[in-house]
Amino acid sequence: MSDLTEIKAAARKAAIARRKAAFDLKTPGAAGHLSEVLAGYRGVPLSGFLPIRTEIDPLPAMAEAAAHGPVGVPVIEGQGLPLKFSRWQPDCALRDGPFGAAVPEVDDFFEPEILIVPLVAFDAQGGRLGYGGGFYDRTLELLRGKRATLAIGFAFDAQEAAELPLEDTDQPLDMVVTESRVVQF
């Protein structure tokens, strides 16, 4: 195991503890800031995520956006592959997907132009630390190679880190939305 792998693992562990503490506070209204941001992109195909464990909940903002255009959620097709995105609607039938995240029962794939990205930690420069599978990094690289693709990190303020152990393959965020602010990079 490389030093960077160990450093990232330690950073993830600390960030997940901070995220859990923020999650336990049950701060209301975080999705309101996300809805405000998304209102400027009505109808643009986007992907959100179905929250797992202590992730911040984007579902109210996703439901609002779904009234104006396609909204999807990520589907993991396999190790080392980019994500695919299947159309989601509030109250649609779901099935279990990999890593405990539900996915729509019926696959209806499309390519989003905006990705609401879950994360473990972020920094003031738009760096993002995920779970370590590289799924979002591969996916953002692929989508950004085709067209402008906006990556919006959605997280609690407590998930901000002074600095993150990043690699050249880590795709930057364009923006982070938290329960108290919207930060553009």
Automatic annotation (TrEMBL):
InterPro entries: FTHF_cligase (IPR002698), FTHF_cligase-like_sf (IPR024185), NagB/RpiA_transferase-like (IPR037171)
The protein's required cofactors: Mg(2+)
Catalytic activity, reaction form: (6S)-5-formyl-5,6,7,8-tetrahydrofolate + ATP = (6R)-5,10-methenyltetrahydrofolate + ADP + phosphate
Signal peptide extent: none
Superkingdom of this protein's organism: Bacteria
EC number: 6.3.3.2
Keywords, sorted A to Z: ATP-binding, Magnesium, Metal-binding, Nucleotide-binding
NCBIfam families, sorted: MTHFS_bact
Stated family: Belongs to the 5-formyltetrahydrofolate cyclo-ligase family.
Name under which the protein is recorded: 5-formyltetrahydrofolate cyclo-ligase
Species annotation: Pseudophaeobacter arcticus
